[in-house]
Hints:
Elements: E1 2-12, H1 17-27, E2 32-39, E3 43-50, H2 53-62, E4 66-78, H3 83-93, E5 98-104, E6 111-118, H4 121-133
Antiparallel strand pairs: 1-3, 1-4, 2-3, 4-6, 5-6
Amino acid sequence: MQITRQLALFLSNEPGALSRMCRALADAKVNLYALSVGDTVDHCVVRVITSDWQRARQVFEEHNVVVVETEVLMIELSNRPGSLAAISEKLADGKVNIEYAYFATGPNTKSGLLILRTSNSRKALKLLNAGASGGS
Length: 136
């Protein structure tokens, strides 16, 4: 569990826009850890967590892509019923709002990766770490 940087990109909502972004990252040897795409009529908001956010930002800016940097929590959690409920309950009890989240796992995997944008990343991390070290 850690605080990391998310990059939000504004891409044209057209065939090939996402593939060009992914190719640029691959050519720069930057790995994608998480990706979320939200569309509107004429553009998409693509949120990414990468292995090297500074290099990724540089790549996007070299391609004239508008980039917004945001602090988020990146949490590996077990793939079992109740994992997300426990996290969201701890944050709610600590009065930390979850502004948005995205998560992925597969049916045959033991863990997943959760990305949380909260009202206070540092407080959220402290609450969740206290819960992790304090048992169930």
